[in-house]
C-alpha cells in the first residue's frame, strides 16, 4: 500500500542531499559556459547504466568530467530529475532538452516523463514542432496523433503558425501533405498554404512539400495560377487535365529532376453531411489571417468567398461589389487596402469562436480538453 508520508519523507531526504555540496564527489564541467554541476556518484550509477559504466571504468578515480554535447541547463534537469523524481516540465523545448539528455545517459524514467509531456501537449498550436520530434525519435503514437490533428484541423493548424509566426520544416510539411483524408475545401488550398508560408518567411524551401500536392485533381485555371510551378510543369499538367494524353503518357518528371505527384484521386475528406457547418468557420479564420498578415499574397477570390450559406445578404452584396466579374472568371485578385479592410470586417463577423469549436469537437466525438 502506498504510504504518502513515507514518500514525502523520501523526497525531502533527496532534496536535502541535492543541496549538500560537501558530500558530492563528482563535478561535471561545461567548458563553453564554464559552469559546474556537482553530484553523488552513488546515486548516478543507480539511475543510469551509462554513469555506472563511466564511474566503474576509466573514470573510477576521476572527480571531474567534461561535458561538451549537452547544455548545462539540460544536464541540471537530468541531475535534478534523478534526485527529485517526478520532474515537472513547463515548456516543449525544456522537455526536448531533457529527453535528449535522458536518452544519452539511458535514464528511462526521465525519458518517459518527456515523452508523456509531448503526448499531453499535442494540439493545433504545436503540431509541426511535435511531428518533427516524432519523426526524429521514431515515436509512432505521437506521429499518429499529430497526423490526426492535421487531418481534422488543417485550417486551424495553419492559422496558429501564421498568427504566431512559427517556422515550418519543409520535411514535416511534406509529411502532412502526403496524408489522405484531410478536412479542407480543396487541393488548391493545400497548395496555397505553401505559397502563404513562403510569403510570410515561415518556410525556407518547398522542395519536398510541393511534390505532395495533387495538381492532377485541380482545375486547369487553378494549375495556371500556381506561381511555384514552372511553365513546363503547368503545360504538362494541363495537357493531362484537358484529356490530350492518357494515364500512361503522363510524365511529371520536370526541370531539375523535380518529380511532382501523379495521383489523380482526391484525398480530401468531408467529416459529415454538410461540410459548411464544420469547415467554414475554420476556413474563414484561416483566410482572415491571410488577408491581415500577408502583404504580397494574391488571393483566389471565388474560393475564399464562395460561402453563400455563411454570409448575410448585405455582406454578399459587398463581396460581389469588390470581386465583380472576376469572381465568375476564376481570376487571381490583389486586394487594395480598402478592399482588404471591408473583407476582413466581413470575415471577422464569422470567425471561429470557442462555442462553435466545441460544437465541432462534440460532433466528432473528440475530447475538447485534448484537442483545443
TrEMBL record:
SMART domains in the cross-refs: BTB
Species in which this protein is naturally found: Culicoides sonorensis (Biting midge)
InterPro entries for this protein: BTB/POZ_dom, SKP1/BTB/POZ_sf
SUPFAM superfamilies per the UniProt record, alphabetical: POZ domain (SSF54695)
GO CC terms of this entry: cytosol
Protein name: CSON008163 protein
Superkingdom of the organism of origin: Eukaryota
GO biological process terms, semicolon-separated: neurogenesis
Domain BTB: 24-83
Amino acid at each position: 500500500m502506498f504510504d504518502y508520508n513515507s514518500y514525502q519523507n523520501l523526497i525531502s531526504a533527496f532534496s536535502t542531499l541535492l543541496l549538500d555540496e560537501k558530500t558530492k564527489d563528482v563535478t561535471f564541467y561545461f567548458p563553453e559556459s564554464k559552469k559546474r554541476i556537482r553530484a553523488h556518484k552513488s546515486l548516478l550509477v543507480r539511475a543510469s547504466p551509462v554513469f555506472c559504466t563511466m564511474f566503474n571504468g576509466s573514470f573510477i578515480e576521476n572527480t571531474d568530467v567534461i561535458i561538451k554535447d549537452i547544455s548545462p541547463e539540460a544536464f541540471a534537469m537530468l541531475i535534478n530529475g534523478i534526485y527529485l523524481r517526478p520532474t515537472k516540465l513547463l515548456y516543449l523545448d525544456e522537455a526536448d532538452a531533457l529527453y535528449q539528455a535522458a536518452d544519452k545517459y539511458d535514464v528511462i524514467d526521465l525519458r518517459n516523463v518527456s515523452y508523456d509531456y509531448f503526448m499531453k501537449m499535442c494540439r493545433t498550436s504545436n503540431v509541426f514542432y511535435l511531428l518533427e520530434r516524432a519523426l526524429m525519435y521514431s515515436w509512432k503514437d505521437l506521429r499518429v496523433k499529430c497526423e490526426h490533428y492535421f487531418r481534422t484541423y488543417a485550417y486551424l493548424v495553419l492559422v496558429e503558425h501564421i498568427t504566431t509566426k512559427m517556422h515550418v520544416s519543409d520535411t514535416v510539411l511534406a509529411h502532412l501533405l502526403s496524408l489522405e483524408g484531410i478536412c479542407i475545401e480543396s487541393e488548391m488550398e493545400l497548395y496555397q498554404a505553401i505559397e502563404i508560408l513562403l510569403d510570410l518567411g515561415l518556410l525556407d524551401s518547398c522542395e519536398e512539400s510541393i511534390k505532395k500536392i495533387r495538381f492532377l485533381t485541380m482545375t486547369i485555371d487553378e494549375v495556371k495560377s500556381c506561381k511555384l510551378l514552372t511553365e513546363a510543369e503547368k503545360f504538362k499538367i494541363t495537357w493531362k487535365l484537358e484529356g490530350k494524353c492518357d494515364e500512361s503518357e503522363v510524365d511529371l518528371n520536370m526541370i531539375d529532376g523535380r518529380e511532382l505527384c501523379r495521383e489523380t484521386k482526391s484525398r480530401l475528406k468531408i467529416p459529415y453531411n454538410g461540410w459548411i457547418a464544420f469547415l467554414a468557420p475554420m476556413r474563414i479564420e484561416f483566410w482572415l489571417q491571410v488577408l491581415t498578415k500577408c502583404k504580397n499574397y494574391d488571393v483566389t477570390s471565388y474560393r475564399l468567398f464562395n460561402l453563400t450559406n455563411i454570409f448575410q445578404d448585405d455582406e454578399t452584396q459587398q463581396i460581389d461589389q469588390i470581386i465583380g466579374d472576376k469572381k465568375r472568371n476564376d481570376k487571381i485578385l490583389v486586394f487594395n487596402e480598402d478592399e482588404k479592410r471591408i473583407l476582413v470586417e466581413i470575415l471577422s463577423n464569422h470567425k471561429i469562436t470557442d462555442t462553435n469549436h466545441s460544437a465541432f469537437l462534440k460532433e466528432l466525438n473528440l475530447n475538447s480538453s485534448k484537442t483545443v
